[in-house]
Fold these 4 entries.
Entry 1:
Amino acid sequence: MALAAGSSYDGEREAALAAARRLAERHGMSLSEAARWGREPDPVREETPFERMRRERAAARAQAFRESERQAEEDRARFRVAWDDAVRRGLDCEDKRPRREPGPGFVWRSRRRLEPVQHATVLLNETRLPFSEIAEITGLDRYDVVGLKLKLRAAV
C-alpha cells in the first residue's frame, strides 16, 4: 500500500495495488481492512502532574506578560494624549529660564565636600593610606597630616 501511494510511476502503482488486493483476498480481507490491519493507534500519553504544573505556570507567566504589555501600551497612549493636549495648549512653548553661566574665575564647589582637616581625619581613621597620599588628596601639608594622626591617638 505504501508503494502504491508513494510511487511516481503509473505502472509501479498499479502493480503494487494489484499485489495488495491479492494479498488481502488471500487473507479474507478487503483492501481497506488490510490497510487498517497491523497499525495500532498511537498511544495517548497522559500528562504528569509536574508537566501540567509547568504548563500552567508557563501559561500564567505568558498571561501576566501580555497583561503587562497591554498596561504599558495603555500608559503610553495616555501619555501621548496628555502630551498632545499640553502642546496644543502651548505649555511646551513656555520660555525657559536662561541658565546662569558661571562668570570668569568661578569654581564649582560641591557642598558635600569636607573641609581638608575633616577629610584628612576621616581618611586617617578609615583607611591605611600613607601620609603623603592623604596630604595630596586633601591639599594639606604632610606634616599637618602627621600632626593630626598624633592627635588622634588615644591617651594612655
Entry 2:
Amino acid sequence: MIHIVFNEADIKVIKEAIALDESLQGEVVQIKDDYAVGPLNNIYVGEGIEARKQWWREVLAGGDYDGKADSGDVDDYKTVAELVGTMRRNEEEIIWIWAAQNKHDVSGYYWLLKYMQEFQGRVFILYLNNLPFINEKGNIFYPNWLHEIPAKEFLKAKKLAREITLSEFEVDPDEWTKLCNENKGIRLLEGGKKLAQEDYDFYDAELKKLITPDWQKASKIIHQYASKAKHTTGDAYLLWRLKVLIGQDIFDVQGKVGNMKEFEIKTKG
C-alpha cells in the first residue's frame, strides 16, 4: 500500500496512524507543488512544465524561499514516475490518495489523476469532505486539512477508502483540462471537488485592507491575512503579491524588500 498526501504536515499524522493499525502499513509519498496557484497550461509537457517552474522562480526570487524552485526538493514528475514504475512492477500494489476539503489537496488530486488512469481498480480515494471528527479535546469539528485530525481518528477514516471509479477517471481529467486551458492563476474550492478560478491578483484587495498608516513588517501582514481571510494561500504567494503591490508605488516601504521579516510597509503619508 502506498499512501499519497499533499502536505508535509500530513506525512507525520499518517505515519502515526500506520503505527496504530498494521492494516495501513505502507510508504507515505507527498506531492509537493501547490497546484492551487500558478500557470497550468500544457502542464504535462516540457513547455508547460518549464513555464510553471519559471513562474515559481519569479515568485520565490529574493524572498524566504529564494532558490527553492531549482533546489530539486520539489519534483512531482520524478515522484510520479517512481510511483508509476512501482505500480507496473508490482501488480498487487495499491494506492490510497488522502485529501481533505481544501483547494490545495483537490488541485493536487486532479493533477495526479492523469498518471493513475492505467491503474484503475487499484487506486483508492479517501476524500474527507464535510465529515465530522473528534479533536484532542473531545469536541466534534470539520477539518479543512488532514493534519488537523488526530491519528487515532484515521482508523475510522480508513473505512471511507473507495476505488476511484471508471467514470471519475473519465470525467475528472476533462474538468482539470478545462481549468488548465483557462490559464488563470488561482484555484478556489466551491464544494465537493468543484474548483473555480480567479486571476493572479485575487488576494490583493484583502491584503491592501491590512496595510495601515503605521509601519508593519510584511510578515505581520501575511500572518494577519492567514488568520482572518476567508480564502487563504501560502505565505510565499502572499509575499510575492505584496512585492507586486510595492512595485505599483501605492505604499511606502522601508528596509530591504526580500525576506518577509526584513521590510515594513504602510499606506502613503
Entry 3:
Amino acid sequence: MSDEQKKMHILAISAHAGDQELTAGATIAKYTQEGHKATFLHLTPGEKGHPRLSPDEYAKQKIEEAYKAAEILGADVRFLQYKDAEIPVNDEIKYEVADVIREVKPDIIITHWKHSIHKDHANTHKIVEDAHFYAALKTIERDLPHHYARKLYFSENWEDMHEFVPEVFIDIPEEAFEAWVKALSVYAFARGETYGFPYIDYYKALTVVRGAPVYFKRAQGFMVPRGGLNKRLQWFE
C-alpha cells in the first residue's frame, strides 16, 4: 500500500463539521499515516448546536476546530456555504458537491447513512449519492472533467442507526486510534461541552464493539450502497 502508484484519496462528506471525524476519523488517520490523502467536505459548520453561543459565534468556533482536527488527522478540509438544519436537496447543491468530487478526484467517498433522526444527515446522503453519479457522467458538462469515485461507503453515526448494519470493518491500529482521539478532543461538542453527550467515550467504545466480532482490537464499521458484504478488512477495497 505504500507504493506511489497505489496512493488513494478519501473524500469524507458530512452535514456538519465533526460528523465524519467522529465516525470515520480513525480510518482516515490510518490512511493518511500510510501516505494516502484525505479531504473533509462539510456542508455546514453545524453552527446551531450550542446552547449558549449564537450561530455566528459557534460557526467561527466550529470552523476553527475543523481545521485543527483535520491537521491532526493529516487531512484537508473544505466547507460549503449552507446553514445548519437547512441543507436543501436540489440540483444546485448536488452539482456543488459533484464539482468538488471532480476537483479532488477521490478514489473513495464516505458519507452519512440514509436513515437518520437528523434531517441534515438524511439530506446529505441523498445529495452525495446523486453528486457521485453526476460527477462520473462525461455527458454532464461542468468546468472540470468527469471523475468516477470507485467506492462509496456510509459511516456509523449514533443519529443514523435505523437499519444501519455494518458490512465492512476496517482495522484501526494504535497510532491511528491515538491521532483520532486527539482530533476529536479538539471539538467542544465531542468533549461534552454543549449538550453533554459523551461522544468521545461512545465512539471509542464503538471501535471495540465493531472490532471484537471480526477479531480486530478496534475497528470502524461501514455500509455499502447495495449491501451483501460482511468483510473483515485491513483496508477499503
Entry 4:
Amino acid sequence: MDEILLTENLTMTYRVGKVDVHALRGLNLSVNPGEFVSIMGPSGCGKSTLLHILGGLLQPTSGRVIIGGEDLTTLSDAERTDLRRRKIGFVFQRFNLFPTLSAEGNLKIAEHIHGKGKPSRDNRMRLEVLKLLQLENKMRHKPLELSGGEQQRVAIARAVINRPAIILADEPTGNLDSENSKIVLDMLSRLNRELGQTIVMITHNPEAAAVARRTIEMRDGTIVKDYLNASN
C-alpha cells in the first residue's frame, strides 16, 4: 500500500542564542491511507514541531516530507499553500472559527477556499459530515452560541468537508472538559471508521491517544515506540 504520508530522516534544529536545540533527530514515519494515528509524548519532545512540518507550516532543517506523493520540502511557499488547500485539513486546540459567521458560514468559507471561489454543487458530503458530527441543527448558530465541544465539531467539519487526503489534529481536546473531549474523540473515530478519513493527532493524553488505532510515542525528537492499540 502506498503511504499517504512519509518522512525520511527528518531533522529540525533551532538556534537559541549560541545553542543549537534539536527538536527532531532523523525521524522516519509512514502513515497509510485510512489510518488513525496518535502521536504522543511530553512537552518538548518535538511532536508539535513535527505536526507543523507535516502541514507545511515549517520547513525542516533536513530530510523529506511526502504527502500524497508530493514532496513538501521541494515546493515553494505558494506551492505548499496550494498543497495544504488541496490535501490537508487542520484541527487545532483553539477552534479558530470566524466569530461573526454562523456554523454554516464557517463551512462555506472552507468550501469556497477549496473550490477557488466556485460554489459546491454536491451537498452529499456536507450532509454526511453534518449528520455524523451531529451538527444538522446547529448550522445557524454563531460560535459563541455553541458549547466548546460543538465549536470543535464545527472546526472538524470545516477540516473534513472537502475530503482532504489527511487531517492533522493538534491537541484537539486540549480546551475541552472530559465530557466534550470524549464526544470529540468519538467523532474523530467515526470519521475514520465510517468515511475512511486518514487522521494524525498530536496529544499528550494517553486516554486520547488510545482512541486511535495506532500510537506513536516520541522522546527527544525521535520515535521510541510505535504500536497498535489493543482496543481498536
